[in-house]
Amino acid sequence: MPESRDAGLILNLNLLPGGTAKGSWRLDDRDPSWFVSHHHYVEAAQIAERGKFQAVFLADTPAWDDAYWHHPWRALTPFIALTAIAARTDRVGLIGTASTSYNDPFNLARQVASLDLVSDGRAAWNYVVTAGDRPARNFSRAQADPKDERYARAEEFVDAVVALWEAWEPDPIAGDRTVGDYLRPGAIRPAAFAGERIQVAGEPLVPPSPQGRPLLVQAGASERGIALAARTADAVYTHQTEIDDGVVYRNLLRGKAANAGRDPHTLKVLPGFFVVIGDTETAARQRHQELTEATPDAVRLSFFARQLGIPVSEFHIDRPLPFDLIAKAEISRTAASELDRLLDAAARDNLTAREVLALRHNGTQHVSVIGTPEQVADTITAWYLAGAADGFNLHVASSPSVLTDFVDHVVPLLQAGGVFHHDYEGTTLREHYGLAPHRLSAGVLSS
């Protein structure tokens, strides 16, 4: 069986509480506590499943942000929230985030494999390398490790998790009532991973799901992050905003995957996609303006500061940007094109932070459409057919309202255009992505 087939356009939903517009909860008449509950996530996931989305995705930040005083935040740990979703959905995939910086490989491997088993093979782990001193202080650290050290740990961490998942043989349960053997002889071997930073020598506890093992998803944009993704990831989240840049980046990743000995078609590239929908473009822009005005300046400034890797305390809304600190910051290179244009304009015209925020199209660094369902579908189709993306990680400005509009009005257009499926063809996330069931291989990395 081939390792990959063309599954058509892939759509993931980013489960942002209330949506990308941080003030959207103020325009909703429900109890505000709804937006930090598992009920909100389940509602959004069920809408996504009705729209035949391949997966829902839940990010995570292991530290408090002062902007949380003003908007809903991801309060639940991802794999708890996704387990609640698994119980209330049947097909949609479940992608959860966990840091390689502040977790243990054995516990993390067990958590993800548990979700994969209870969901009948719908789980994936989005592995991230966590920067910043504020998260570090929550884990008995005075400050974050240097970037090179964080990535060195991440590389070993991912390999250790995969070694645990790979310690199983296929179909391990014999269930022989006659002799009393529950497991087949040789069905499991101790994982033996020995790195400089991480050592794991033991048996995993969760047997494999119908898809073999969970998928790996990654969003790192540094040179080391790209190399790790090319070697290990099944899907990569990216931040290109122009089709030509998307084509170049997708070809780069797939080329590196081929150099790592992989079938490059097994690596799915999924840029972010921000959307606000209206019956007309004017109506969509008015809706976007209302959502923007509902978001306090402090929230928008905090998000901008976080993108630049600088404490928000170093910014003042009515003063020029702190360029001395920006020059030293770690900026995600896949997001840099959009940020660089803003920073160039700010430096050239001596703009205040408020003026810079006013220039931002939507407050994100993703492909974006503020317009009609036809405009949204046309943009998605153009990227997909140009080979700039295998699909998108959807960021809706307001959830569930914009998500419902997308499912009801954009999905039918994509289906009519022949780029998106009319129904699920399988039950596992690997099948949704057009990937063959994973072949367990005794500790060897393979996808």
TrEMBL record:
Pfam families: Bac_luciferase
Alphabetized UniProt keyword annotations: Flavoprotein, FMN, Monooxygenase, Oxidoreductase
This protein's encoding gene: ntaA_2
InterPro entries: Diverse_substr_monoxygenases, Luciferase-like_dom, Luciferase-like_sf, NTA_MOA
All residue ranges annotated as the Luciferase-like domain in the record: 39-388
GO molecular function: nitrilotriacetate monooxygenase activity
Binding residues annotated for FMN, in chain numbering: 60, 97, 151, 222
Family recorded in the similarity comment: Belongs to the NtaA/SnaA/DszA monooxygenase family.
The keyword Transit peptide appears for this protein: no
Protein name: FMN-dependent oxidoreductase, nitrilotriacetate monooxygenase family
